[in-house]
Amino acid sequence: MTVTYVIDGSRVTGLEQFWKVIGEAVNGPGGYFGRNFDALADCLGGGMGTPDDGDFVFEWRDHALSAHALAHEETARYLRHSLSRVHPTNKPSVQKRLDDALAGRGPTLFDLLVEILTDETAPGTLRLL
Fold this sequence. Notes:
With about 130 residues, this protein is of the alpha/beta class. It has helices spanning about 15-25, 35-45, 65-70, 70-85, 90-100, 110-115, and strands spanning about 5-10, 55-60, 125-129. A three-stranded parallel beta sheet has the order 1-2-3. Helix 2 packs parallel to helix 6 (about 110-115) and helix 4 runs antiparallel to helix 5 (about 90-100). The longest helix has 13 residues, at about 15-25. The chain is globular, with a radius of gyration of 15 Å.
């Protein structure tokens, strides 16, 4: 039987709130399902609340509200913070992504999350509603 996890897009006001919302969708109040992109991908692999058989769906309701909250402005905020923590050899590529985000170009955080949740190697399905 397919398990459905509802991501309430109206509650996603930024990236930190997304981590909280998806964690609660999968594991209840205070639940964890990743707090960064790599952890999210790892959690999708199983053992973190989703069925081991991969028979689950993320139903992202009001995803347009989330897309707006996780657009270029939030992406730039995230990249600005990341720039201070990345290895020096990665600074030029992060700076380029930051410059693009500030100019309203390139993938947004919403785009990156959707990409992870729809990766063909990851179990489960994503429905944007």
